[in-house]
Amino acid sequence: MATTSQPRPRVLILGGGLSGTLAAAALAPHSDSIDIVERHPLPDAAKPRRGLPQARHAHMLWSGGADAIESLLPGTMDMWLRAGAHRVPIPNGMISLSPGGWYRRCWPEAQYLISASRDLVDWAVRTQALAIPGVRLLSEAEPVRLLGTRTRVTGAAIRHRDGTVEAREADLVIDATGRSSHAPGWLTELGMPAVAETVVDAGVTYASRRYKAPVDTTGWPVINVQADARLAVAGTAGTILPIEGGEWMVSLSGTRGGEPTSDGTQFTAFARQMRSPLIADYLARAEPLGPVTVARNTANRRRHYEKARVDGFIALGDSATALNPLYGHGMSAAAQGARALRDLAANSDITSKGFARRAQRAIARPAAAAWLLAVGQDAAFLHEAGKKPKLADRLAARYVNRLITTACSDFTAVEALTDVMTLQASGVVLAHPRILLAAIRGPRLAPLSGPALTSAEEAVLLGRPVPTPTP
Question: What pTM was computed for the model?
Answer without folding.
Answer: 0.94
